[in-house]
């Protein structure tokens, strides 16, 4: 089997941040409402600004992460890796693929355009 790379997708990154912004906006407005603020709408602006700033700041780092699947291992950034024989569970979570080892270590392959295809490739290599 030839090595296969899993690179993050910019569209998945933007969609994930849009969801985070919506949740952040609603959460910030709810906090202001509970506090009795007459300016609940400012929570929406704050939530949107916070997630937009985070998305802009982290984009170059997050979109540079590449995971590589070989015939015997899955390796990622910062020396992270796991032998295929040690992979216990693989599941999707939105645009992420979570790999859980038999020892309980967890790794996220983030912002996949087709997380189901990533999961299937890992499961096939494991078999």
TrEMBL record:
Transmembrane segments: 12-34, 40-57
Name the UniProt record assigns to this protein: PH domain-containing protein
Alphabetical keyword list: Membrane, Transmembrane, Transmembrane helix
Organism superkingdom: Bacteria
């Amino acid at each position: 089997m030839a090595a296969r790379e899993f690179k993050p997708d910019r569209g998945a990154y933007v969609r994930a941040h849009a969801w985070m912004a919506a949740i952040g906006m609603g959460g910030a407005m709810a906090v202001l409402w509970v506090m009795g603020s007459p300016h609940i709408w400012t929570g929406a602006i704050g939530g949107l600004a916070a997630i937009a700033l985070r998305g802009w700041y982290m984009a170059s780092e997050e979109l540079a992460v590449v995971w590589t699947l070989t015939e015997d291992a899955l390796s990622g950034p910062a020396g992270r890796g796991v032998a295929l024989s040690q992979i216990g569970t693989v599941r999707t979570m939105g645009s992420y693929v979570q790999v859980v080892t038999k020892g309980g270590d967890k790794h996220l392959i983030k912002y996949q355009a087709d997380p189901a295809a990533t999961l299937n490739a890992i499961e096939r290599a494991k078999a």
